[in-house]
Amino acid sequence: MTNQEFARKLRTLADKWEQLPEQKNTPLLFVENSRKEDAVAIVKGIGGHWTKTITNPDHPYARVVYASRETGLEVSLYRDSLCKIIRPAQPAQYECEPLLSPDEEADILEPTA
Questions:
Q1: Exposure pattern of 52-80 as b/e (b: 16+ CB <10 Å)?
Q2: From the CB of residue 12, how many other CB atoms can be counted at a distance below 10 Å?
Q3: The predicted structure's pLDDT at residue 30
């Protein structure tokens, strides 16, 4: 879809939105990007003040989200579009207390193949 086609759809949406009853929640327009260059063009092109958050920072598919309160627009990218891993996550290692003694476990556990 071209920018002109998208803008036309937004104008149509805006006309229909004005006819709705007032909303209790703040409407939000979400734009997902896979290319840093596209997100930069949108944020700089729209201008104004933005906030930046990282959603689910411990998740492999964490997102960097730029939000504009002035426009209700959120621009989202996967974190790996902007960030590089400088220290890989380490798998958790556990040290656990035994629930039963080895003899008690031998009496109740099924043999494993």
A1: eeeeeeeeeeebbbbbbeeeebbbbbebe
A2: 10
A3: 83
